[in-house]
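Hello,

I think I submitted the arginine job twice by accident. Can you confirm which output corresponds to this input? Input:
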Amino acid sequence: AAGALWGGRFSSGPAPEMAALSVSTHFDWVLAPYDIAASKAHASVLAAAGLLSDEELAGMHAALDRLAADVASGEFQPAPTDEDVHSALERGLIARAGAELGGKLRAGRSRNDQVATLYRLYLRDAARRVGGLVLDLQTALLDQAEAHPGAAMPGRTHFQHAQPVLLAHHLAAHVQALGRDVDRLVDWDRRHAVSAYGSGALAGSSLRLDPKVVAHQLGLDRVTGNSIDGTSARDFAAELAFVFAMLAVDISRWAEEVVVFTTAEFGYARLHDAFATGSSIMPQKKNPDIAELARGKAGRLIGNLTGLLATLKALPLAYNRDLQEDKEPLIDSVAQLELVLPAMTGMTATLTFDTGRMAAMAPAGFSLATDVAEWLVRQGVPFRVAHEAAGACVSRAESTGRDLDDLTDEELADIDPALTPQVREVLTVAGSLASRDAVGGTAPVRVAEQLAELRALVGAD
Ligand code: ARG
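Support: Only one job matched these inputs. Its output is below.
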C-alpha cells in the first residue's frame, strides 16, 4: 500500500494530491541498481553486527539478486502507489524474501543516507560515461588536426582577422579546453567517492554497523565524517552540474564556429550529408542543426546548474524534501550530453575543410602587420616605433587597394629606413607561422609537439 515505509502513525493513506506531488519513481528509478547493490552491502553489515543470521543473509542476498534481475529485465516496475525508488524496491524485496526477512533490511538506515549515497554512485557512473564521450570528440578534433598539418587560416580576435594560425592549432585549442573538462570530471570523482551510509536520517546509527564495509563494497573510498552533512550536502551534485554546464559551453564554442565556417561567406568547411539537415521549403538548404542544438543545449545545462543552486540556497540542515529536486537537473544534463557529444563527434569527424579557401583568407585584413612590427623589433627598432611604421604600411596599402607585400621597396624605405627588402621574409603566411615558435605558439614545429602531447592524453585512434 502507499506509504508502506511509514504508515504506522497514520490513520489514512495519502490523498491523491499528496501522492501525485510526492511520487518520484518516474525519475529516481535510475537509482534502482545502485539501491540494490547498497542493500546487499547493508545486509552484510547487518549480519556482521549480529542482526541477521548467516542463513538470513544468504536468503536476503538471493532475494536481492532476483530483484536485481527482475529490475534489469523490466519484469519488476514501480507501481503508482510507490512513493520513490526505495519504497518500490522494498515492496519488491518483500515479495521475494517474505515480509519477515524482507522487513529486516531497513534497520540502521534511512532513505536519507541511502539516497545521498546512491545518487553519488549514479553520478559517478554517469560522469565516467560522459568523460568517455568527451574523449571521442577530442579524438575527432585531433584526427582532423593531424589530417591538416600545414593548413593556415585566419586567426581572429574580436572576430576580426588578427594573425594567421594553423587550422591544427585552432582545433587543438578546443581539444585543450575539453581536456580540462575531463580533468574536472576526474577530480570531481575523487572528491565525492564518499558513502553516507551510517548517517541514518541525520544523527547516525545506534546499531554498531560498520559504514566502512558498505563504502568499500560500493567502490567508494571513504565514509562521510558528519552524519548531518552526509545526508544534507548536495554540493557534489551542484559541482557536477557545473562541470557538465562548462563542458556544454565549451562544446558550444566549437559548435558556433561550425555554424559560421559552413556559411557561404566563410566557406571554410562543408558538412557531411549524414550530419546536416535540409529545409522543408528551400531545396538548396543544408543546415548545421547539430551545431545549433549543441549551442542551444548549453543554455539548458546552465539552467540545470542554476536551478539546482537555487534549490540548495538557504536550505537549513539536515535533510529537507526540497532535496528530491536534486535529481532531474543532473539526469537531464547527462541525457543531453549523451545526445550532443556523439552527434558533435560524428559531425566533426566528417567535416570537409576547404584548406585552399582558408589559406587564401589567412593574410587578408593585413594580418601580417604584427609580423612587420616584430621583424623591426628584431632589427633593434623600439616596438612603439615599429608599431607606428607597420601601421603606416597598412594605411599606405589600404588607401591604394593593395596588400602589404605589394608595397615597393621604395615605399617601405620611405615609411621607415629600417624597412629593408629583407622584411619580405615575414610578409608571407608561412614565414609568419614559422616565426611564432615559442611554446604554445602556432609554428608548425610547436603544433606538431602539441598534437603529439594531446594524442598521448586522448589515446590512440
Ligand atoms: N525520495 C527522496 C529524495 O530523493 C528520498 C526519501 C527521503 N524522504 C523522506 N521523507 N525523508 O530525496
